[in-house]
Amino acid sequence: MGAYILRRLLLVIPTLLGVMIINFTLVQFVPGGPVEQAIARAQGQGDVFGSFAGTQGDAGQLGGDDMRGGAGPGDERYVGARGLPPEFIEQLEREYGFDKPPLQRFLQMLWNYMRFDFGESYFRSANVTDLILEKMPVSISLGLWSTLIAYLVSIPLGIRKAVKDGSGFDTWTSGAIIVAYAIPAFLFAILLLVLFAGGSYWQIFPLRGLTSDNWDQLSLLGKIGDYFWHIALPTIALTISSFATLTLLTKNSFLDEIKKQYVMTARAKGLSERRVLYGHIFRNAMLIVIAGFPAVFIGVFFGSSIIIETIFSLDGLGRLGFEAAVARDYPIVFGTLFIFGLMGLVVGILSDLMYVFVDPRIDFERREG
Q: Which residues form the ABC transmembrane type-1 domain (predicted)?
């Protein structure tokens, strides 16, 4: 197993490198880079696309040249730069590093990332690492609690449905979870706000934020209660659609195991149904469900919905990434991409380890051999 883990860890390096190369290459052709964004702000237009007053040819040249540092100071290809001093454009290019060739910029970025130095945000005047750490509590909260709730509800429900397969309980619960799966998360979030956050009916839960304004003045129990009070609605909204897949996966896994020969043998020996279910079937049936927990959590964590965060006014990584992409704030874009990519690859290794932990009979080295 040690050799397998070592090989997987060594594969992390070329995989991350490939991801960064592809994405760095793609942004070279995206119109409206940081220089154009800064020019638009300097001219008071507030949006880079407001500066696209030139011809279609001008806009087309912009997409390649400003990202490559190929347009000279005061060049007409910087459509929004017309009327600005050439020295101002030169200063912008030096500040954002676009006075260097793309290859040099990419190699410098890799060297910095190897030391976990993600640089400064172009437009937020803050370190990228500090920004990520600042927004991470919201994303961790949504990812952690939505995953735990999904598992705590779906696994017992899936086992019950397998035991009661074909009964009335199985039928109406299947209908309920399919309806829940079909409801878009953002629509359900709005419904929760209308019903329980003072939209039109009851003012039970707060409308925005992860904590109250008087958080620092609360006792320890008060802080815990305030935190769960704020996170309740967004967590429910983010979790509602995940019940269906996990519940049906659990049910089908148990049904497959119930029909196997070793279950009939255990029952023939006179073991109780509970002992057969949880002493023999459970470990085999839950292999795929439990071993996938790290991947499920990281998937929810990465996929922290920008819509859910916006609806509940939560300032998490979803909004940070979206705003950085819109503003072409590349240090944040590439910094979060590198961190999330690294975490995703490590979690993939942890998922394999979970398989071995749940069922020691699995040997990845022998399979590869």
A: 136-355
